[in-house]
Design brief:
This protein is mainly alpha-helical and about 230 residues long. The protein has helices at about 5-15, 25-35, 40-50, 60-70, 70-75, 80-90, 95-105, 120-135, 140-145, 150-165, 170-180, 185-200, 200-210, 215-225; strands spanning about 110, 115-120.
Length: about 230
């Protein structure tokens, strides 16, 4: 059977059990899906597990993640499976930091027109939230590194995760990031938001200090967050 036809058949079977994933047949098919050699099928199976909160398949998810980390650019292009697995494990409140540490540090360079590109930024962001949720002891150091990530998507996730900690220790990281700036305005936006969540009284003046920033977008963001609705 041609590869494309086999993949279509696998995805069709997964779609068929979506309404009753915890049935005996559904569980068998989901386990098979997580063992599939097609990353798209693995991702689809992981998504169904997350949607239905099937905690019985946590070990299968972990095994699938490990398999997708072996020659990752070949077996899991664009991190499709790893992203969905990490998202599902985060949803299921998985509490082993090793997987999330592996994910937050993972860089996956893949060929694109004119060069190569890192496709793991979203994965790093999901794993950051996973570490925060489990109260990982060294999470602030991991988030500090992620806040300096080359990919803006990862830096945005880092700022969100720092706010999610609820820990005032994150305030200096966000203040420093706003001071040194960022080429991506959405990163500064998340830093403003995080500062006002973690230390609203002290941070309002900091955000207001950007009302006359030379960059128009930053001025607009500062005005937005200085609005009474945000403090």
């Amino acid at each position: 059977m041609p590869k494309s036809q086999k993949l279509e058949e696998t995805l069709s079977i997964l779609a068929r059990i979506r309404r009753h994933p915890t049935s005996e047949e559904g569980m068998i098919i989901l386990r098979q899906g997580l063992k599939s050699k097609y990353s798209i099928a693995v991702a689809q199976a992981a998504k169904i597990v997350g949607e239905s909160t099937i905690t019985e398949l946590v070990s299968d998810l972990v095994e699938a993640f490990a398999r997708m980390m072996v020659k990752p650019t070949q077996v899991d292009q664009n991190c499709l499976a790893k992203k969905e697995i990490a998202q599902t494990l985060y949803h299921l409140e998985y509490s082993d930091e090793n997987l999330f540490l592996q994910g937050i540090r993972h860089i996956q360079m893949e060929p694109v027109w004119g060069g190569v590109e890192d496709t793991a930024a979203h994965l790093r962001g999901i794993c950051a939230l996973g570490l925060v949720r489990m109260n990982y002891s060294d999470v602030m150091n991991e988030l500090a590194d992620l806040l300096a990530d080359p990919k803006p998507e990862a830096r945005v996730a880092a700022a969100k995760a720092i706010a999610y900690t609820g820990n005032p220790q994150g305030v200096p990281l966000l203040r420093l990031k706003t001071r040194i700036g960022d080429q991506a305005p959405q990163v500064i936006s998340e830093c403003f938001s995080g500062l006002l969540q973690l230390a609203p009284a002290d941070s309002l003046a900091i955000v207001a200090g950007f009302l006359f920033d030379p960059k128009e977008q930053i001025c607009e963001l500062a005005a937005k967050y200085c609005n009474a609705d945000y403090v």
